[in-house]
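ok so I'm stuck.
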Amino acid sequence: MKNPVGPVLRMGDEVEKIIAAIEDDNPGIEITVTDRGAYVRVEGEHEITVTQATLRRYLGADYEIRSLGAIMSAFSGRVITASDSVTWQSLAPNSNGTRR
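replied:
not stuck anymore, here's the structure
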């Protein structure tokens, strides 16, 4: 992967469901998961997003997107948070010289 982006998540009960939500919200993007024991690194190329709606499908209707921050110990790329989603974007320019 040339420009991997995504969260580093502390291991816990919700991690597998969060990974599934990220995979669902990013069809057509290969998501790689590297298990390091105490944490997992979740990465996709250039840009990946997870939405509160998808997280709630996996974790329950009362799950708040801000709860993701409590288990996200780090991330690669630039993180953009909104009230209903989190996006990780590459800092590297695209082939045409612009940023995503």
